[in-house]
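Supplementary Data S3. Sequence and C-alpha cells for construct A.
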Amino acid sequence: MFCARDQIKIAGRFDYNRILFSEEKRISQSLTRAMKNYFHSHYCLLQHIIVYFLSILLLKQCNLDSFVVSVLLVCRHDRERQILKMALEQRGVKCLEVQPSYQSYMMVVQFKPDVIILELPRPCSDQLYFAGLLRKQKKTKNLPIIGYGDQVSEMEKRGYVLGGVNCYLQRPLKFSAIVELIERFIKVKNKKLNQVAPLTDKQKDMEDLLNSTMSIPEKLEIMTRHVSSLVAFPFTVAKVLHLAQDERTGAGHLAQAITADPAITTHILKLSNSVFFSRSSRRINSVKDAIVRIGFTETKKIVMSMSVINLFDSNVEKLGFNRMEFWTHSLSCAVISERIAKNIGAVNAEEAFLAGLLHDLGMLFFDEFFPSVFQKILQVSVSNADQFIECEKKEIGVTHNDLIGELFPRWKIPDTITEAILSQYDVEGWELEKIDSAAKKMAVCVFLADMIAKSMKLGRECDAIVSPVSKALFVSMGLGAGLNNSFVDNIFQSIEMFRKFLKIEETSCCDEKRLDKPQNIAVINQREDLFVPPVSYLEKEGWQVDVLKADVESSSMNQKYDVIIVWGNEKLARDQAEKFSKVLHPASDGNSVLYSSLVVIAPKGATLVESEKVKMVNSRFDLQYLAVMAEQLAAATGGLLAVAQEKEAL
C-alpha cells in the first residue's frame, strides 16, 4: 500500500486528487472539512486518521488477489484442457496451462499454484518425473497433485501415488469430483471457489492494454494516468537526495527531513536503541542523536529504502510474484550498485544506491495497477524462459521501463538516476570507450548489480535472465579481482543489516537448496571471464561446482562430473566443445559406460549438433532454466530417471 503521508506533504498542502479514488473524493473532502473544525491545530492527528481509513480501504482492495485460487493444468489434449479451463474459470479459478517440461517446473516455482491437475497418459515417464521433481523440493513437496487419465488397475494407481500424485481420477471425468478435491486441498489455506464477478471499468481498461489495435502512446497514457492519480514519489526520499548533494548539510538538516514523517521518525529512534547499534545503556530520544549513533550515510540509505518500500503493501503475495522477494532483489542491487560506484569513484554512491533500489520499480507498478496484464506477461516470460521486458514489448508494446520514463521526470527524480535506469538494458551492447558520462557509468553499476544479484539468488523478480560480462568491463568498474570472498562477504553483511532494519523476511533473502544431495558439475570458462553467473547460482542450488580453464583435457575429467557446462566465447569451435561430450561417467549399475551430459552456453552464430546428451543454450539465458535442465540431464545420466520408470511400472 502506498504511503499517504508522503503524498499529503507534497507542495505543503493536502492534495486529495492524487491519493483518493474518484468515487470517494467528495465524501472524504466533506469529512476532512468537518474534522478540521475539531482538530484545527492538530494536523498530525488529522493525517493519522486519514491514513488509517485509507489503509483499510486500500488493503481491502489489494488483498483480494491473495485469495484467488490458482490451478496449473498439465494436459496434452487441447480440447480437454480448454474444457477444464473454462469450467474452472467459471468458479473463479486462475488457470495456467503448461506441458511437463523444464518450463513446467519453472512455472510452479514462479507462480506457486494451489493445486496441479496432471494428465497421466500411457506411458507417462515425463509426467511422473515432473511429479517426483516437485516432491523432492522443499518448497513444492506438499503441493497437491490431482492425476487423471484412462482406467487403470489398482496396482497402477498405487504406482502413480508412489510417483508423487496425491490421487487419481479415471475418465470419464466428473467435474464435481475435481471441484470437491480442489476445495478440500485449498481449505487449509482459507480459500474457497466462487463464481466469476463481472468486470469493473478499471478491469476493462486493463484489458484494453492487451488490445493490439490500440497505439503505444494511448496505452502509456492509460497506465501513467492510473499510477500518477493514486501514488506520488515519497517526499522524504526527494528531501534526503537533495541533502546528499549539498556538502554543507549535517545531522541537523537530515533530522529535520526525517521528523516531517512520524512513521520514519519512530523507526529511526527505535533502530538507534536496538541491540544492533546501542553499545551503552543511554537511551536515545532525539532524531539528531539517533543519526549520530547510526551514522549519517547509513541513516540516509535506511530512510530512502524504508520510504520506497512503503509505497505499497509488501506482504501482498500475488500469483507468481512475491513482493518481499522483489524488494530483497532490489535492495541487493542497491547495495551492490553502491559498492561498484565507490570502486570507480566517478559516480555518486548514494544515487547509485537509489538507482539500484528503483531499477525495476516499474514491475511493481504493473503488479499493483495492471494485474491481469502483468500476469499474462509473466506467464509468457516464464513459459518461454524469455526476458520479462522483451515479453512486455511483444505482448503490449509498452514496458515497465517506459512507464518509469514517464513518471520519474514528473516526480523530479534526478536525471542521472532516471537515465541510468532507462538505459540499464542497453549496457550489454555498449563499447567500453563510449561509457563516458555519469549516467552511463551508473547504468553499468545497475546492470552489473542486477547480474550479480541474480547469480547469487538474492531475492527474485520476474526473470533470472543473465548474459556474459566481458573481463574488460568488469575490470573498468573496479572489479579486477572478480567476486572475491571480501566482496561477497561485504555484500551479504550489508543486505543482512538492511533486511533486519526493514523487516524483510529471512526466507525471502536466501532460497533453500533444491538438491537433496550434492551432484558434481564442471564449468569450463572458455571466455576467461572474471564473472561466470552459472557458478554462483548452481552452488546456491546445491551443486558441487568446479571451474576449469579452457585448456583442460577431457580425459582428466572422466568419472568426476554428472554434467559439464562450456561457457563458450565468440571463437567457440565445434571440435573444442564436442571433445567434452566424450567424458565418461559411471552408470548407476556400475557396469555400463555412460557419457557426461554437455551444455554449451554459446554466443549467437555458434553451431553445434544437439542430441540427448548435448544441449545448446543462448548466451542470454535464464539461470533457473539452466539449473532445471542440468538437474534433468544429471538424473538421466546417473540413472535417477530409471527409478521413476520403475515406479511407473508398478
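Construct B, processed identically:
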Amino acid sequence: MKFETIHRISVFSLATMAVAPLVLSRELSIYLGPAFACFLIAGWFIPRTVRVTPFFIHTAPVLAALLFLLQAFRIAQGEHLASASIEFAVLLLGIKLCTNHTYADFQQTVLLAFVAIIASTVTSYQISYAFYFFSYIILLPLAMSLTLLRKEMEQRFTKADEQTQLRLLTSKRVIQTRFAAGWAITVFGLVLVVVGLFLSIPRWGFGMGGGTLFGKQILGFTNEVKIGDLSQTIENETVYLRLWPLEPKQPNPTVLPLKFRGAVFDTYQDGTWQKSADTRFRFPLSSDGVYAFFNHVPMRGARFKIMQEPTNPSYLFVPSGTHHIQMERSRHRGRLRYQRLQINPMGVIKYNDAKRVGIRYTAMVDGSPVISDTVSDMSPFLRVPAETENVAALAAAWSGNASTAEQQIRNILTHFFKEYRYTKVISADERSDALNTNILEQFLFDYKRGTCEHYATATTIMFRTLGIPSRFVTGFSGARWNPIGEYYTVDANAAHAWTEVYVNGMWHTVDATPQAGGTGNSGSEQPHTSYISLFYDTLAMKWHQYVIDYDEGSQQALLAALKPAFTTRSSNRPAGIPRNTVLAILVLLVFGFAVYRVWSYLRRPRRRFAKNSRPAKQQATVLFLLLEKKLQPFTGQRTPYETPMQYVIRAEQRLPKLKPFLESFLTHYLQARFGDTPFSAGQFDSYRRDIPIQIKSAANTNK
C-alpha cells in the first residue's frame, strides 16, 4: 500500500476514534455527528491536486474564524461553554481533514484528535469509551511516526523537487515488516505506560475524574409527567442501577420484586401530573454515612450494594422497604467524606452529582411497603380535578359497602385486575382521540386497557374521591438477574408508575396495573435479554468497578497487594526472587527495547537525508529511478545485485533503438552520481521529460 494512503488512513481513523465517543454520548448537539461525517467523507475523497490549490489553503482559516464566531454567538445565547468549546474543536478537526496536504496539517490534525479524546472523558464514561480510547492508543504511534517521516520528506525535498516528494508519497516500499514490528512494540509499551500512569497517579475522587456533562435525562422524573411518557422507554435497555446481594450465596430469583421510588406528583389536570406541594429539600442528619429512614428500626434484613448511574435529575432510587442506607466515601475538596443526601417532605431523595459519576451505597431492605415522610398538610393529596363526577361515581360503586379505607382499596383493585388489561404503548388512534376527550374517562369507560400511568392515575383520583389521600409516583419496578455478572440490573424498560395512599398514619404502596406483581411497567414478566446483552453489561459493570470507581481506597488496596512481592523474605520462607518482581523486570526490559527501536527508526531518515548531501546525487538518483520505472514493463524488475550499467546494457538488448539515448544518459548519470559534475542548467528537466517519451517511441518501433 502506498505511503500516503497508509498515512491518511491512520490519521483519519485516529480522528474518528477520538470523535466517536463525543458523538455517541448524546451530550452535544445532534448535528455534530452528521457534520463531522460530512467533513470526514469530503476530506477523504477530495484529491490532492485540489487540496494544494490556493483556494483550499486559504479556506481553512476562514472557515475556522466563522466557526469560532458561531460558537461565540451560541455561548452568548446561553449555550454551555464546555459543550460549545468541544463542538468547536471537533468541527475544526473536520476542517483540517478536508484541507491537509503538508506534514504541519497532519500534525495539527493529530493534536486536535488528542484534544477530542481528552474531551471524551467529560462527556462519556461508558465501556464503549474504553474501545475507542485503546483504538486511539493503537493508532497514535502509527499516525505520529508516519507524520514525522512525511516531515523529513518535505524538509529534505523542497518544492523545487516536488516530483521526488510525489514519488516517495506514492512509494510502496516505505512501510515494511520491520516498521510494523516496531509499531506493535511501541503500542505495547504505550499501553503499559497508560495503565501504569492510571494506577499510580494519586486519586482525587472517582477514577475517570468525571462522567457526563448533563447526565441521562429520564422521562417521567422531571417537574411534570404526561400519560404516555414512560411508554417511550419500552425496549430501552439502558441500565440505571445494579444491585449486588451481600447475603451468603443462595438461589436468586430471575426477577426481584422491588420498587425503586423516584418522583412524586400531587396535581393532575388534562393528562398531566405536576408538583405543587412543598418540594424543598433538606439535609437529614448523618455523621457516619448511615441514613435511617425510620427511627428505632434495627439494621436487619437483606443487604444490597447498589451502583446507580448518573441521571438528570439526580434522584436516589432507593428500593422499597429500605430502612437504612450506608453511603460510600469519596474525595471532595481534598478530603474523604460521605456523600450528603437531601430529602423533601414527600420522601423524595436527591444527591449532589456535580461530577456526573452517579452514586454508590448499600441498602438494608426488610420488604416493608411503608414510606417515611414528614408531610403535615394532606389537602394537596385530596385535590380532585374538574369534571370527574363519573370517576367518583365509579369509585363509589366499586368500593361497595366497605367500611374501612383498606377494604375500599382492595375492592377497587379487584375490579382493575379482573376487568382491565395492560398494554405496553398507547396507539396512535388512542392518542389522537385523547386530545379531544377526557383521557381518564376514556380509559375507564371505553378502552379499558392502558399503560401503568393510566392505572396509577385512575387509582389516585378514585381514592381521592373516597377521601383517601393519594399521590402519583414514578420510578422503576423489578430488578432482573444477570447470571454472568451475578448481580441485578434495573434498566429503562422497568420504568413504572404506581400510587401511594395514606392509611392509618403511614403511606403505603398500591399498584393497580393488572398482572404486574411488581415486575415492571410491562405488567408481566421482564422481557428476555440475550446472552450478548448480559455479557456486555457485565463488562460495563467491571469497567465501572475497576476504572470508574478506582479511587484512593482502591489504589491503597492495590499497593497493599503488591507490597509482599517487593519486600524482603523472612528467614523461614524459601529464598528466591518473587514472580511478580520477575514479571515487572521483564516488562521494563521490553518497554526499554521498544523505546530504543522507535528512537533508532526515527533517527534513520535523518541520516539518510543529511543536510550536507549533494543535490547532484539526488538528481541522478531521481532520474535513474524514473528510468527504471518506465523500463520495468520491458526489462522486468531490477535485481538487487545488478549495477546501473548492467541494467542499462540489458535494456539496450530489449530496446535496441534506445541505445544512443541510454548511453548519453548513463554518461551523465555516472558523472553526477559518482563524480563532481552535476547536470547542466535545464538538463535535469530535459531528461525527466524525455525518458518516458524516448522509451515509448523505442517500444513502438520495436513492435
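The radius of gyration is 36 Å. The CA atoms of residues 398 and 640 lie 99 Å apart.
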